[in-house]
Amino acid sequence: MDIDAIKGISLVDFLHHLGYEPTGRDSKGLWFYAPYRNERKPSFHVNPRKNVWFDFGSGAGGDIFTLAGELCDTTDFIRQAEYIAEKMRMPVSQPYKPEPFIEQPTFEDVKISKLVSPALLRYLANRGIPADIAQRYCVQVDYKLHGKNYYAIGFENSAHGFELR
Description:
Radius of gyration: 34 Å
Helix content: 25-40%
Number of domains: 2
Shape: rod-shaped
Strand order of the largest sheet: 1-2-3-4-5
Number of helices: 6
Order of helices and strands: HHEEEEEHHEHHEEE
Oligomer: single chain
């Protein structure tokens, strides 16, 4: 059940599920005993056309959510929605809760050495970079990532880390 579905619930049906029936009718709606306080004369009015309520005894009023808030004594919107869904015996979708972020080490066993891997030198040669120039400015970086071994061409950046390719 989502918020729009809850808004679509008739206040009269909601009160019926709570065990309250109208005691009278007028041109604009129905009269009930206030469901959240004791009273001798009904002062709780529901306008079914607008799906709103007003309690002439307390001056409170609103929609189905504000009524649920009065009934379960909370201003928490999620709790109000859960209360309505519970009373109407309808499932309510749970709000999205992201998984907590757990930082895991990414690069492990990092070793920096002279660029000698034939595969990496071949990669650079295919891009028109001679081995002697590559070895002057680049290094070979061997590392482990998520349990697997890798190697890459690295060159030092301005933050004294390495850019890898």
